Amino acid sequence: MTGREKILNLLGIAYRARKVLCGDFAVSAYVQKSKVPLLFLASDSGKDNREKYRHWCAQKNITIIDIYTKEELGRAAGNKYHVVIGVTDAGLARAMRKERQAMV
After folding, report:
1. What is the pLDDT, as a whole number, of residue 6?
2. Which pLDDT belongs to residue 101?
3. What's residue 7's pLDDT?
4. With a cut of 50, which residues of the chain have pLDDT below it?
5. Mind telling me which InterPro entries this protein's record contains (predicted)?
6. Pairwise CA distance, residues 68 & 9, whole Å
């Protein structure tokens, strides 16, 4: 199993445990309150969304993982597609960050 697949599996676990926020409205509110330790941003998202979340996450010191398409994120979270997903559980976020760093 590759690192990409492990991260998506962890995201699926977090989704089933209800430790993620999906969608622009919910995620943006939690990012602004610094309650999201990790953010998934689709690599094929719109320019405005990418700039908005990169700016917010840089200010709040939130890690962004942007190596997945919106279809891949959607499959991991049980939907057709998702552009942005926030992970609210610190332990799962740490495991995903660790796996991402191992890929580099």
Report:
1. 94
2. 92
3. 94
4. none
5. Ribosomal_eL30-like_sf, Ribosomal_eL8/eL30/eS12/Gad45
6. 13
Where are the domains positioned within the chain?
Answer: 3-103
Q: Which CATH number fits domain 3-103: 3.30.1360.40, 3.30.1330.30, 3.40.50.300, 3.30.160.70?
A: 3.30.1330.30
Query: DSSP string of 4-73?
Result: HHHHHHHHHHHHHTT-EEESHHHHHHHHHTT--SEEEE-TTS-HHHHHHHHHHHHHHT-EEE--S-HHHH
The amino acid at residue 58 is: A
Amino acid 26: pLDDT:
92
What letter would DSSP give residue 80? S
